[in-house]
């Protein structure tokens, strides 16, 4: 790969909750078109970092630079507009909306989402809406979800809902997708489908991912680079092979749920 | 310029102590439920009317009537929960469905009471007593008793929460259910006792209010928002906050008469509640619950 | 025969006004998930605004201060605008709250508004209220047909609100509202400014309630604060729950049923001397009805349907 600035550059990130220093000096980067992992024992501050980067918490220190843009402390709307979209741990689709509607909500820049144009009539926004419909159709096909297009999201199995959630995130045309424990609560066979989906997206659509995960197998398997967190800061960064051998990492994981080899 | 009249303060303490008692009951129950029960006021009304039946219809003296009204109302509350809310909880119905159900239940109960006893104001069979003048304020012996009973019960609650295992377990459960469960506290038993104590306090509050003024089918409903205001003011789940909140609102309502029309009194409580929810939703005492 | 017809016409008029109220509440709760328990406040503001804009300037003996003598159309417009303004103010205060807190605050604020109506004679005429509110075109339409004429006006308003609400549902805006209803945090994570959407939904529903209030003022020709008690909010909620939340059709069906029931039972014969308890009995039935609906058919009579793929396509003129 040519010399490129990292897509996401987090430096010295801090987030405190009263006396608890959930994140206390986190440094890591995510390269273009990579699948980067963020791991660590329970309470290391992974999800808090995620939420802070995505704009759900105000950082108490440090910087978040994305594609040259300073996103430190930006609100979620700004973050999405800049090109970062996150998913949630529990496959949070909109339960009583159809799969298709779930995707449509993800579309950005649809003029019909503003009250006045929507009130005046479809002529005001038909182009944006048509584009959103086309994109949703295309993603449904790509993800293999056309058969459940009109079903209510709550009727789907958890694996399908996870795919819907990722496809919905793709609707926002993100440069980076933050996956928050994507395998949480998924049965083994479904995990494989999701892994393959993520890898396909990276290969075929040059999508970049940052994944927080507990499941070591998945992380070692799928990630190009991994950053390990402990007690709010990064303690190691490198390829899966390097991380496996790192002594500090091994110690951090002693006694925690590192080898969850079996079911979640 | 209106010179500050201590009568307002005294009136406020009388009313405030009954609100405080009701609020302590509500805050305990609210702390373990997961929805706003709009029918809660009806427990107060049912308690007041149960005591009325015992006292006026059956001729029992008021203290006995009170002792009788508590288990009757508690039993009633348990029955209502079993018949109305339990089936909904089993189905996994969320807080909003329970809330709307409680609104319907509140209407049905209130009007049933109205059918049985009519909408007229009723009074307990107690001598109203002469108003005495102590240090320039007018107060009756009954009102002094009301304040004393309320204060006594609040002291009992305090002792319960700090000196008994049950009380300490209750505090632990209300602040962190998961932790309480894992440390071996039988939350089911705690919840049951919280209910019983909460309802009991509510019933006593209802009777005291009836003694101070009168009883009517809508008394609990009218007081509901005021009770909620006191609970919010003091912090949900915090009994001491509820005591403080109830007293403050009672005093604020009475003192307001010096500045605005007396018919604004309930609006004072609402205004306090709205302001608290906007400014400091966790209550005056904040995280010290 | 004519008397029965006139009765039906007046029931239909009130039902129509409640239908508009309920469609507005549906936009709040059914579409956006806003637990608004203070809906009567917008109704009241609209009614008083329209009345004050259209009654003649006060005489010496009148306690109230305002009276602009404008035509009814201005009154209705003013009703809608005032309700919208109040909604913006209330919304700024309350929409950041958790949904059940919103319920309590909205009741509290509506009650405060009611107390203001009762006490501030200079504004609202206090307990005595406002009277002699004019009816539109009353000099043009002959007396025996006026009821029908006014019903026509109300029905036009209902139709307008109904069509607008239905269409809004199929727009991207309506979609975002539903997504906020389903999971606000996820909607935020997709980049939506959820506060702005909730505020806009709040204002739209409030404007409808204000319009309903204005229509009520010119129907009743007299306003007192007792007409704006919390029972109006409660009836609207019952109508929405029973009829079916999440769609305007359910709102209309519910309003017609509930008002129809209320008026039909208002004049029940006094059999067995039960006459005095009939008002309470009616309310008990309504309370039980709400509980039964939530328990056995929470989706209401007209369940909400998803907007289909074909409908979305049709809206933008595409064929599959």
Q: What features would you highlight for this structure?
A:
heterotrimer, A: alpha/beta, 6-stranded mixed beta sheet, 10 strands, 38% helix, C: 320 residues, mainly alpha, 13 helices, 2 strands, globular
Describe this structure in words.
The complex is a heterotrimer of chains A (264), B (289) and C (320). Chain A is α/β, with parallel strands linked by helices and 264 residues long. Chain A has helices spanning 46-53, 76-82, 99-106, 115-120, 126-143, 158-171, 188-205, 216-222, 240-245, 247-253; strands spanning 8-17, 20-30, 35-39, 61-66, 69-70, 84-86, 176-180, 208-212, 225-230, 233-238. Chain A has two domains: 8-93 and 158-253, P-loop containing nucleotide triphosphate hydrolases (Rossmann fold), CATH 3.40.50.300; 99-155, no CATH class. Chain A has ten helices and ten strands. Chain B has eleven helices and two strands, in the order ααααββααααααα. Chain B has helices at 6-32, 40-57, 62-90, 95-117, 141-163, 165-175, 177-182, 187-212, 219-234, 239-256, 265-279; strands at 131-134, 137-140. In chain C, α2 packs antiparallel against α3 (72-94). Chain C has a two-stranded antiparallel ribbon with strand order 1-2. The model of chain C has no long low-confidence stretch (mean pLDDT 91). Chain C has one domain (2-228). The interface between A and C is large, with 46 and 34 residues.
What are the SSEs and their pairings?
The complex is a heterotrimer of chains A (264), B (289) and C (320).
Chain A: E1 8-17, E2 20-30, E3 35-39, H1 46-53, E4 61-66, E5 69-70, H2 76-82, E6 84-86, H3 99-106, H4 115-120, H5 126-143, H6 158-171, E7 176-180, H7 188-205, E8 208-212, H8 216-222, E9 225-230, E10 233-238, H9 240-245, H10 247-253
Parallel strand pairs in A: 3-8, 3-9, 6-7, 7-8
Antiparallel strand pairs in A: 1-2, 1-4, 4-5, 9-10
Chain B: H1 6-32, H2 40-57, H3 62-90, H4 95-117, E1 131-134, E2 137-140, H5 141-163, H6 165-175, H7 177-182, H8 187-212, H9 219-234, H10 239-256, H11 265-279
Antiparallel strand pairs in B: 1-2
Helix pairs in contact in B: 1-5, 1-8, 1-9, 1-10, 2-3, 2-4, 2-8, 2-9, 3-8, 5-6, 5-8, 6-8, 9-10, 9-11, 10-11
Chain C: H1 2-31, H2 39-54, H3 72-94, H4 99-119, H5 121-124, E1 130-131, H6 143-169, H7 172-182, H8 184-189, H9 194-220, E2 222-223, H10 230-243, H11 248-264, H12 278-296, H13 309-315
Antiparallel strand pairs in C: 1-2
Helix pairs in contact in C: 1-6, 1-9, 1-10, 1-11, 2-3, 2-4, 2-9, 3-9, 6-9, 7-9, 10-11
